[in-house]
Amino acid sequence: MAQPAASPAAEPAPDNNPRPAAPVPITVPSPHDDHHHHLVDRRDTPRGRAWEPERARSHPEPMDGVATKLVTGEAGYVLEDVPHVSDYLPDLPTYPNPLQDNPAYSVVKQYFVDPDDTVCQKIVVHKGGARGNHFRRAGPRQRVYFESDEVHACIVTCGGLCPGLNTVIREIVCGLYDMYGVTKILGIQGGYRGFYARNTINLTPKCVNDVHKRGGTILGSSRGGHDTTKIVDSIQDRGINQIYVIGGDGTQRGAGVIFEEVRRRGLKVSVAGIPKTIDNDIPVIDKSFGFDTAVEEAQRAINAAHVEAVSAENGIGLVKLMGRHSGFIAQYATLASRDVDCCLIPESPFYLEGEGGLLRYIEKRLKDNGHMVIVVAEGAGQKLIAETMQSIGKDASGNELLLDVGLWLSQKINEYFKKTKMTINLKYIDPTYMIRAIPSNASDNVYCTLLAHSVVHGAMAGYTGFTIGQRITEKQNRVSITDRMWARLLSSTNQPSFLCNKVIEEAKKEHERAAQLLDGSPSHRKVEEKVASSKSSGKK
Ligand SMILES: Nc1ncnc2c1ncn2[C@@H]1O[C@H](COP(=O)(O)OP(=O)(O)OP(=O)(O)O)[C@@H](O)[C@H]1O
Ligand SMILES: O=P(O)(O)OC[C@H]1O[C@](O)(CO)[C@@H](O)[C@@H]1O
Ligand SMILES: [Mg+2]
């Protein structure tokens, strides 16, 4: 889907932010916003300052698989716009946004986002270089496409658990009630199949009041079971006209398909996505909710591994963390802990034997230090393991099931030291589900609120086929091992890079050339591809 930027509901477009020279006015789907309401100027308050830069970077984007509407302007300006119900239902009436009469927001300087506000995809730009694409800025619009008592919303959660799911549910419900006076909100139980095979529950601010203090999702979740026709039939039969979909990459693709079918049937239904990915592996958004909580919880496992390791002769603490395709949780947990001697992630293939290999490094570390801690992301080393173990198939959504790298690694380490006749004490800790089944921490709760309120503004304004996101930094959906952040990790753990000298030298040369360009440029990607392919082939 496309995503609207996350900007909190009643929080106005700050005009004290230095903005680049105004781009040529662009056509926006919601034809209004003649002026901003100015009430109390809060710009000089600490709260105002703290929030404004963040809001200025939040945005919605089209859902995965949904065609992007490109709007161009002067100086290479490109807006990746999101679909709108008026694109296929051109004569819809609009209504004043009820937020302007809401006493809670009466101190807000500007109620509404300026229609010309956009959020730049690139945070770092090269002088004279292209600025990259822009996204529509999230936030309340002056006119909305739904009357409060016309709205019949529903919320569904799909895919794996993640801290903060309940907070997002709570804040969508409260946001709809408190900001827009919407009272008809259905909870779809058990993921996508819940649309046609399960019960629904009525959601009210009262029944969701405490749910942010609980882990999991009060609605339940599932994988598989996405039957587009049955889902959209159910939406039509129930008279649902706003669908809030919370889930990962698969879920957002599923929401994109629902949007296409809704559009094909010409229904006035807004399909809005809130990306959930504990692995932090959805591109374009910078940080997914629940990630902070997961990294924090991972510290407890790493601490335990460290305590066990230092208390035994040649103690090795091995911790497995989530991260199917990307090692962000492992990377950040390692950097935060400082007790970790080696971090293994899917993006950086490693090898066991010989010079520069993992086993020699462990041996050296034990000889030097007497103990060590290893953090491994669940998706690391899968190719290596597959050399001796059979694939275990796919889950109901078609995701490849992973072989247990933690158990495999424990076995390989034990075998090696048995052969070398060196006593070791290895303790394997697998807290994978523990880091995602907990309630979100304070910072994630605030972030969930921002996302939930922003997605409500987007849907009320008639946007559809979008997912909500926030920009803080340039973000890939996989750890880049040629980034400074990975270098920081390598220098903190002192682990081998598992790269041969030739590859490093080549990468350096390429980097010198690429340094004049920006991250994300084709040549930058070429370097990464080259490093990755050399690693998976050559090694020693
Ligand atoms: N391409 C697709 N088209 C339609 N539905 C899809 C598609 N991919 C996934 N889905 C549906 O989305 C739901 C969630 O997908 P999946 O199990 O892959 O989790 P996810 O959203 O990627 O979250 P996680 O990050 O936890 O894996 C499932 O019900 C699945 O059937
Ligand atoms: O065992 P489940 O519930 O299918 O989920 C496991 C997967 O879900 C995730 O937590 C993503 O949500 C991955 O990190 C992990 O591989
Ligand atoms: Mg997924």
Please tell me about this protein's structure:
The chain is an alpha/beta fold and 540 residues long. The chain contains 15 helices and 17 strands. The strands form four sheets. It has a seven-stranded mixed β-sheet, sandwiched between helices. A four-stranded mixed β-sheet has the order 2-3-6-5, with no helix packed on it. A hairpin with a 5-residue loop joins β2 (69-72) and β3 (78-81). The longest helix has 20 residues, at 291-310. The radius of gyration is 25 Å and the shape is elongated. The model is unreliable at 5-57, 517-528 and 534-540 (pLDDT under 50). The structure holds adenosine-5'-triphosphate, 6-O-phosphono-beta-D-fructofuranose and magnesium ion. 6-O-phosphono-beta-D-fructofuranose binds at residues 159-160, 248, 278-279, 322-324, 378, 395, 436. One of its GO terms (biological process) is fructose 6-phosphate metabolic process. InterPro entries: ATP_PFK, PFKA, Phosphofructokinase_dom, PKF_sf, PyroP-dep_PFK_TP0108. The record marks 250 as: Important for substrate specificity.
